[in-house]
Write a structure and sequence with these properties.
Order of helices and strands: HHEHHHHHEHHHH
Strand content: under 5%
Shape: flat
Oligomer: single chain
Structural class: mainly alpha
Helix content: 55-70%
Radius of gyration: 31 Å
Length: 281
């Protein structure tokens, strides 16, 4: 009984992509199998159209509110409504015009919807763009496995509109290089042990091992940037005379600083002032 339950649990939690029905179920399983494949459209154009529409609706309501305030300000008997919210909300306008309270309620509703849409568009625009290798992997799967209809699989070709749910890391450039090298050399050490797919064309890598390997690379680069300039400065001061050694040392310091700044800008997400402060230190 225990063995059968254990076998059932293993099948439940390690269900391969190919065990799902062909179509949207299998495509969803493929997208969920690895964070590299979590690529979707953000529909930037649609958000822009909706924002422009809501913005102009608010502009019209703003002008209407302004005209209502000016009309009451010019009428001495209605100026009291501009100074008292209670009287303004209790008034009965027999002219058929919309009351200020009703107008403000509509403005509040439109403003809330506009603000939510604006923040949503901002969050989507700030999401990470998928690397080219991940886009190519998604297109390869869609074209060869044909889980989706042709028209419904074209979302993967909207390159400028694609976003990824994959979290951005500090050394994503090195991550991409390492993953490309692993795919080229078919290294089994970093292969994912879980049976996510039975397809030999789909390769999964263990993220924890890749992260550890990338951390090792970063550590080696830091050691080289610290040790090599010091060794060169010491060797220069011993071998050359004072006048020549001063010029060579200045050159070594300049080159090492440039390399250090380049490493920060390429392998991390440090901002410009952070790179400047680190280089000056």
């Amino acid at each position: 009984m225990d063995r059968r339950m254990l076998r059932f649990k293993n099948q439940l939690f390690s269900k391969a992509v190919e065990n799902h029905p062909v179509g949207y179920p299998r495509q969803a399983a493929f997208a969920d199998s690895d964070e590299c494949f979590m690529i979707y459209r953000r529909f930037g154009y649609i958000h822009s159209r909706l924002l422009l529409r809501r913005q102009d609706e608010l502009r019209e309501l703003e002008e209407t509110l302004h005209d209502t305030d000016l009309r009451d300000n010019k009428d001495g008997t209605r100026q009291i409504f501009l100074r008292s919210r209670k009287r303004d909300e209790r008034q009965n306008d027999n002219s058929g015009r919309e009351t200020r309270a009703s107008l403000l309620d509509r403005i509040e509703e439109k403003t809330m919807r506009y603000g939510q849409l604006l923040l949503q568009a901002q969050q989507l625009a700030a999401m990470n763009k998928p690397p080219v290798r991940d886009q190519m992997s998604l297109r390869y799967y869609l074209e060869n496995k044909k889980c989706l209809a042709e028209a419904e699989s074209k979302f993967a070709y909207h390159k400028a509109d694609l976003v990824t749910l994959r979290p951005g890391r500090e050394h994503s450039v090195i991550d991409g290089f390492v993953e490309s090298m692993l795919q080229s050399f078919r290294c089994k050490v970093f292969r994912e042990t879980a049976s996510k797919s039975d397809d030999p064309d789909i390769r999964y890598f263990t993220r924890s091992r890749i992260n550890a390997f990338v951390t090792l690379i970063i550590t080696c680069i830091i050691l080289l940037l610290l040790v090599v300039p010091i060794w060169l400065l010491y060797h220069t001061s011993v071998v050359l005379d004072t006048n020549k050694s001063n010029l060579v040392c200045m050159g070594i310091l300049l080159v090492s600083t440039l390399i250090f700044s380049a490493v920060l800008s390429l392998f991390t997400k440090a901002r410009r002032h952070e790179i400047l402060a680190a280089s000056a230190g």
